[in-house]
Specification:
With 326 residues, the chain is of the alpha/beta class. The protein is 37% helix and 13% strand. The radius of gyration is 21 Å and the shape is globular.
Amino acid sequence: MPLIDKAQVRRILVITLSNIGDIILTTPVIRALSKEFPGSRIDVMVGPNGKDIFDKDPRIFKLVVYDKHVSIAEKRRLQLKLRKLKYDLVVDLRNTVLPLLLAPKYRTSPIQSFPKDIVHKKERHLYRLFPFGIEDLSERSYIHITKEDEDYAGDLLKTNAVTDPVVVVSPGAKSHLKQWTIEGFAEVCDGLIGECAASVVFVGTGPDKEIVLSVAEKMKNKCHDFVDRTNIRQLASLLKRSSLLITNDSAPMHLGCAVGTKVLAIFGPTDPKKYGPTGEFDAVINKKLFCSPCEVAACKYGHECMKLVSADEVLDRAKMMIEGYE
């Protein structure tokens, strides 16, 4: 039996995560709540990095941007402000003490175990709603894209003479251990341009610029560098218009899943069963080594889990996905 009287739930607060990729994996929770409580107000607390994911979303009444670096006094003021809103339900995906301090009618437990068959982070986030009678683990990630975002992405492609099929490539990652080789990306991109007449578009932010330049320098064919030229919703629109995304385990991978783009993901130290793409036609390339996935911050060996992924196998799979033979 659900441990909640749904008629009493009029105000909901969802406390989501910090990193963009992790945040996108929590969006199915918001979608599920909006379906289960269609007349309720849903507020979302998110770090500064995730603001653009939610600030145009019609499902969300109020966006609370929480910066963990502010003073204790400012944190206390925010807590008191939120408590005055008298939330009926607080869904905390960060496992903080805030639900206790806000004293809602109902809240998620900070201590929760999961069945062995529920491994992927998206499904684990959704499983937190089970005590409230919400048991559908199939909800997809999403991001709300505005007409302005769509227009910007379309103009960006048109201005730069990017033609179909468009292959977006994200060679960066938050950790260098999750990055496939520069040489591998260059060879695959050249192959797609030469054999599929694809337009290759590189995406990323900040530190990814150097990686993209390194890949482009090793390529023989022309590519398009869109690093730092889109916000998160504009990138989502760009991905939505693309035939394929080739990526490491990174935020663009989760964004591609959210808009239904075919995703070819290269994994090494992280576990695709927990973090991998979730689309029906998505694919993962990784090596089954004794040490992988290790999920540690430093490699004890020679990064073989990524180095042993060949350009040929990535290119072959990419061509099949572009041509529709998954």
